[in-house]
Known about the structure:
Alkaline Phosphatase, subunit A, 8-stranded mixed beta sheet, 3-stranded parallel beta sheet, alpha/beta, 16% strand, 24 strands
Amino acid sequence: MLRNAAALGLLAGALAIPSFAQQEHPRGVPHLDHVFLVMMENHGYQQVINNPNEPYLNSLINSGRVNLATNYFAVGHPSLTNYLEIVGGSNFAVRSDNAPDWGNTACTPNISSGLVNADNGGGNAPVKVDTGNICPIWGSGTDAETPAVDTWNEIAGPFVALADLDGVKSVPAAPTVGKTIGDQLDANGLHWKSYQESLPLGSVYGVNYSNGTATNLTDFTTLAPLTSSSVVQLYAVKHNPFAYFRSVQDGDDPDNSLKNVVGFDGPRGLYADLTRGDVPALAFIAPNQCDDQHGRGNGDAFCAFDYGQNDSGYTYGTQVGLNPGLIQQGDVTIERIVKAIHRSPVWEQGRSAIVIVWDENDYSGSATQLTGLFPSQNQNRVVLTVETNFGHSPGVQSNTYYNSFSLLRSMESAFGLPCLNHACDADVQAMSDLFGEEHHP
């Protein structure tokens, strides 16, 4: 009996290891009823601040209507990795923009298999990789390390190295549970929605991209001479992180399923919900790839990619060479969303916050440098602003070091949830100066 008890104790200890990935409610941010999280794409801090083609957002900052993080960093690359880190506090061993392996219950999630889902086919990868569609995320295991400088995976074009975070800090692999803040909210009787612009009509199951009409599932046999290459990929599943999780794909819980993924328009869409004042605790808002400043190669002039100007081994990471139309398109989109939130009855009730954040600095690479100490414009620093409907903020500009995990920790704090995965790391702080301090009698 003693041997059996000891064995059971060891087993319980082994099973308990991943529980360190979720800890008690992080303090620092006051209770919020609603968080509106607006995701923008691919531009660094210095490309957005004081950009003449970004007048609305800069007017909010310069007038002190919003608080600004001046030292906020995206963690890794590419887009999907950052989106996963914001909603789940981990890359879940995914360092690619690959599509979900929809509904595959036989595959092993990357956090369990020990394989990193990456863009690199294995050339100089220091870890075992796979490059296929991403197995639905669930269970527990270990995520992938985020090196300070990426020299093997997300390098393309002129790059030989890409800075994660500030090009000096790194994030070691750690025990990880395969869940998001959406799972946490649902377990606590709260609601979330992922508002995705340009979704097709009908179910989003299996949809990897869409222009609002055609998708990767479209039968083009009756649409000749049109082909799949004719589709401007406005909606992209890589910007919809919740869709990668088994709980959401399975939909066993209707309140934590793909039913929570809706468009901007229509009776259950963003603008209808705001008009009715019927919005979830977390509104995850992702404009399409022409409106979020990502750009598309087959879009119009206001959606064309902007690669920036390259000189002396560095892509500048400044405003030089950017597409002014793409920047303006994003700024107008921000204005449209923010003003719709301000007009909603929800903004006059309870306590709410609007967070606007860029997912990554797509200009954080170098054609020559393989180690740290990247120039500031080539680090993964991005803009994050917070506006609340309570108190009278003087327009705080915080130079405290924050990152994507800080954003998750702050939202969890606001909703009274335990921290998840790297949001629990000792050096990750809730952004109390940007959201307003939590006061305890």
